[in-house]
Structure of YtkA-like domain-containing protein:
Amino acid sequence: MLSRISIAALAATLSLAASAAMAGAGDYTFEPLNPEMKKGDDVTLAIRLTNKQTGKAVTDAVIFKTRVDMAPDGMADMESPVAPLPSKEPGIYAFKTDLPMAGRYQVTLSAKVQGEPETVTGKVIVKATK
Ligand SMILES: [Cu+2]
């Protein structure tokens, strides 16, 4: 027969396991360092990836897919080329792209994060000004 103490210990272990299993791809957030910039070619986009649960920058992510388009202004088919740039700061991921017209651009990112089995995805909106 289980004693009262071992039942409590078992319950604690189970709830720990449940909260660990709940951590997932939704625990990360992408944010632009500069949400607004001048329109133009060869613009640098710098995006910070943060773990929402720890508040810490995620320094070891591999961003394997990026897309920049004008979906927020009804121009989803207006896509810009994106190329990765070397990171100047841990947890900041930089890209070179073109923002040819003033308006809002959506940056869609897919990343692999160490220790996170699911793909982490995010969307960031940046605004280009004249
Ligand atoms: Cu456009």
Helices lie at 4-22.
